[in-house]
Structure formats: structure tokens, C-alpha cells
Design a protein that fits this description.
single chain, 231 residues
């Protein structure tokens, strides 16, 4: 059995009620639920939340909310792995024979069903524990600089100061949308970033962290541009 687990706690600080705040006319969490359902990859799409209002919104868009998440894994210190392990344990206690799990973030309006389908294809390959969304950095990280307390400039990697950009190795970062994984990998708490992981590469124009009001504003502008491209 394959399930999607969408973590969505109610206590977001920087953007209050972020998971159900209207984004481009729809509750933020709705995009993740709809992409999961549309992908056809999952036997169940479950939202893990401590908040009854989020639970009701999630149900309206087709997700299941079979439990309310305990307080001890709903604070600012709870990790994604804590939440997934709790949901997996709950499912197994109900007799559900889980084989693969996809952690899908509630604040991922750019996620598409085809990305989830690609992740499912990849995670089934021999020797692969996880498949997660990632994209390239827009500028070579080897040329990154830092400022001292006095404002002076230095490079993190001064050995690359004279290296041409085109000669530097491309670098990637987690896109923060989803993590497909074998259920055993989640239960063991194996980290996502290791040699047994693979990426689903996304175009940079479909990746945006949404942690601050400024992020939110930029994401809506970007989303509207992509929406116009489709029409």
C-alpha cells in the first residue's frame, strides 16, 4: 500500500494559518491534496494535523484525516521525520500494509502530479531509499561570499575565485515539496540526503520557499505567471 502523508500543523508563526490561507484563490493545502489525488499514485492521502479547522478544509478537498496529531509532535521543535513516523505507526496499528510513503508538504502549491509520478518511478529502482524534489542553484555556490562583522568581504571557497562559472560543478538544493521513500527507511529515521537517494529535478521557476509574507507575495506572482502560460 502506498500513502501520501501531508503534515499540516496549525501553529505557523511567520504566516498565521499558512496551511489554509487562501493562495491564488484556494486554501494552500488544497494544491498538495489535489496533486496527490490526480497523480493516481496513492491508496490514501492522509493529512496529519493538530488543528480541527485544517482537518475540515483537508476533507473538503478529498483528503482523509483519520487522527488528530498529538501535541508533543505539533510544536516548533517537531521534525518532519517525527510526524511521518507517527503516521506510519498509526497506519500499521490499523492493519494497513504500508510499503511506500510520500511525505508531501502542505505549502507546495507548485507541486504537480507528474512530479509525484516521476518520484514513484524512481523510488522503485534497485538500491533507492528516497526520491525527493530538487532544483539547481541559480548561481555557482562555489563563488559565494560572506561579510564579517565589520562589513569586509571574503569568499567561502577562495580557491574558486578565478575559476570560470562554466567550469564549476552544478549544485542542487532540496525543493521542499515531497519525499518518496520506502516505509522501512522512514521507520529507521534514515536521512533524506544520502547515496541511496535520488532527485526529481524541477525547473527553478516552479520552486519557491514560502516562509515569510514576502515569500508568499512573490510566490503568488510567480504562480499567476505560470497559470497564464497554461492558458
Amino acid at each position: 500500500m502506498k500513502i501520501a502523508i501531508i503534515p499540516a500543523r496549525g501553529g505557523s508563526k511567520r504566516i498565521p494559518r499558512k496551511n489554509i490561507k487562501l493562495f491564488y484563490g484556494k486554501p494552500m493545502i488544497a494544491y498538495s491534496i489535489e496533486a496527490a489525488i490526480e497523480s493516481g499514485c496513492f491508496d490514501k492521502v492522509i493529512v496529519s494535523t493538530d488543528d480541527h479547522e485544517i482537518a475540515e478544509v483537508a476533507k473538503q478537498y478529498g483528503a482523509e484525516v483519520p487522527f488528530i496529531r498529538p501535541e508533543n509532535i505539533s510544536d516548533d521543535y517537531a521534525t518532519t521525520m517525527d510526524v511521518i513516523q507517527h503516521a506510519v505507526q498509526w497506519c500499521e496499528q490499523q492493519g494497513l500494509p504500508l510499503t511506500y510513503v510520500c511525505c508531501l508538504y502542505a505549502t507546495a502549491p507548485f507541486v504537480q502530479s507528474k512530479d509525484l509520478q516521476k518520484g514513484w518511478e524512481i523510488v522503485q529502482q534497485p538500491g533507492v531509499k528516497y526520491a525527493f524534489s530538487a532544483t539547481t542553484f541559480p548561481f555557482p555556490i562555489q563563488r559565494a561570499i560572506k561579510l564579517s562583522n565589520g562589513g569586509s568581504v571574503s569568499m567561502f571557497s577562495p580557491e574558486y575565485e578565478l575559476t570560470r562559472s562554466q567550469d564549476l560543478e552544478e549544485s542542487y538544493h532540496d525543493a521542499g515539496q515531497f519525499y518518496w521513500g520506502e516505509v522501512s527507511a522512514f521507520k529507521q529515521g534514515i536521512g533524506f540526503f544520502n547515496k541511496q537517494s535520488r532527485i526529481v529535478e524541477l525547473p527553478r521557476k516552479r520552486v519557491q520557499d514560502i516562509d515569510t509574507p514576502e515569500d508568499w507575495e512573490f510566490a503568488e506572482i510567480l504562480f499567476s505567471m505560470l497559470d497564464r502560460e497554461k492558458s
